[in-house]
Write the structure tokens for this entry.
Amino acid sequence: MKKLAKLTTAVIMLLFAFSWTSVQGQTELKRKEQQVTFTGGDVSVLKNEKYFMVLLKVDAMKMGNNNDSVPVYEKKKVEELNSRASGKGDYWLRKWEFDQTCFLTEFICGFNDMASGSMILKPDTVVNGEAKPAFIMVLTPSQLFDYVDVCHLLMHLKIATVSNPEKAVAEFDFVTAYSKFYDRGDKLDCHKRSAPGTFYESGEMLGRYFNKYLYKSKNKPAATVKNDDWTVN
């Protein structure tokens, strides 16, 4: 019986290790697919800008492979989880609603942590004098995928003048991901949640792009930069 118990334990551990390797592999694959693509405009006009305003538009964001609107996705998810265990869906909804409040602040944090020549001001910042931004970044996430092991975000960014926000000066597309391995339990902390983490990654990638192609004058702006190509020359 002891031998059988040991054998059973060994099999379980082997299956767990295989499963974890598989999940880890999927996560690493998706993280390697991260990239920022410069889709149009002229980034050189932003070179001497110290500050940017920012606006997040989530009205058109779709969720998952079914392209559900956020309200439809929330309803389905809550019903699905509550059918498994009473209250589980309502508990998930509380965390998800918190996550959404972190999207913009995490993008700002990611950019400000990485960009060496400028920073994004939080929307409630009172500005005047030279700190008053001439440009605004408009974020439009198009789709967020909530996989078992990773969150995956597709997002468009338009940079325009504050005086004429409809006309783009420069535009970018992002593909970012954040592993759920980094989720830290049930704590409602923006820095420890995977969905907001995709926005942090996007801000960080834009900061890296600015460092390499905007603040380093000898580097000609590239069309697409993947997340493993951030060496600043």
Observations:
- Residues 2-32 form the longest helix (31 residues).
- The CA atoms of residues 149 and 181 lie 7 Å apart.
- The chain has four helices and nine strands.
